[in-house]
Amino acid sequence: MAPDRIPADQYAAPMRGILLAGGTGSRLWPMTRSVSKQLMPIYDKPMIFYPLSTLISIGIREILVITAPADQDPFARLLGDGSQWGLRLSYAVQPRPDGIAQALVIGEDFLGGRGCALILGDNLFHGMNFGSWARSDMELSGAHVLACPVARPSAYGVVEFDADGRVLTLEEKPARPRSRYAVPGLYFYDSEGAKIAKSLPRGARGEFEITALNEYYLRERSLRVTVMDRGSVWLDTGTVADLARAAEYVRVVEERQGVKIGCVEEAAWRAGLIDDAHLRRLAEPLLSSGYGDYLLRLVD
């Protein structure tokens, strides 16, 4: 047994997960005219495996996968009910791409008054013990988001800090960003998140903006922002160039270090959701691709 496996009883927590994999993928057309963006590969795995493994690593077992109407069946064929990984997966539809905050409204019944970790299906996170700090959010009061310095902050929600590190403002894709800190697509909300999201008006783009939800918590002085450390990586894979860069990043790390990024089976095994024998059974049908060999090496 690997020394960094995490006992399953640490995950007996009230928080549930939402994985938003909707949208039209228009920035990737024509590739996404007939297939969901989140089903496309990033190097050796479907894109959705990366955010799914992140949720597992931070202690989430029950996850709602939200897709566009035409994409639910392909996602269900790929992921099933999650039991093969010790998870419980449910599915819902986002009729139109009306904003990230709408995911909490769609998932309100699924959450059942619990807190929520919301992750975007085209976001890749990687880093040393990336999920360890997030496990404290299982009993979260308020909201918790990340901040990451980027070269082009105007493409994202932007958070501004004062000289003491306190949050001053949040802006959605500002033409003139007040800082270089973007808010990545992983958000934590307490049990009030869905109710607050339902009360939001549409923003200037006609969508229910996640930044507006975060601003609400900021006004209530219950928003916590963690700046990602230099050992952690966040990649948004929404454009052709971003997709290519993400695939190259994964390839280089995996070939150089001999470890996989976004491996759902490994994440479930390290979380104690499946045992060694179960991991071997998952590996057997995957031997011809080399993916199964990697899983077997984990236990052997």
Automatic annotation (TrEMBL):
Against InterPro entries, the record matches this protein to:
G1P_thy_trans_s, NTP_transferase_dom, Nucleotide-diphossugar_trans
Cofactors required: Mg(2+)
List residues of the Nucleotidyl transferase domain.
17-249
Top-rank taxon, per record: Bacteria
Q: Which GO terms describe its molecular function?
A: glucose-1-phosphate thymidylyltransferase activity; metal ion binding
Query: What's the Enzyme Commission number for this chain?
Result: 2.7.7.24
UniProt keyword annotations, A-Z: Magnesium, Metal-binding, Nucleotidyltransferase, Transferase
Q: Does the keyword NAD apply?
A: no
Q: What class of enzyme is it?
A: transferase
Could you tell me what reaction this enzyme catalyses? Answer: dTTP + alpha-D-glucose 1-phosphate + H(+) = dTDP-alpha-D-glucose + diphosphate
In terms of Gene3D superfamilies, this protein maps to: Spore Coat Polysaccharide Biosynthesis Protein SpsA, Chain A (3.90.550.10)
Query: What is the protein's known function?
Result: Catalyzes the formation of dTDP-glucose, from dTTP and glucose 1-phosphate, as well as its pyrophosphorolysis.
Family listed: Belongs to the glucose-1-phosphate thymidylyltransferase family.
Protein name (Swiss-Prot/TrEMBL):
Glucose-1-phosphate thymidylyltransferase
**Which organism is this entry from?**
Actinoplanes siamensis
Gene symbol of the encoding locus: rmlA
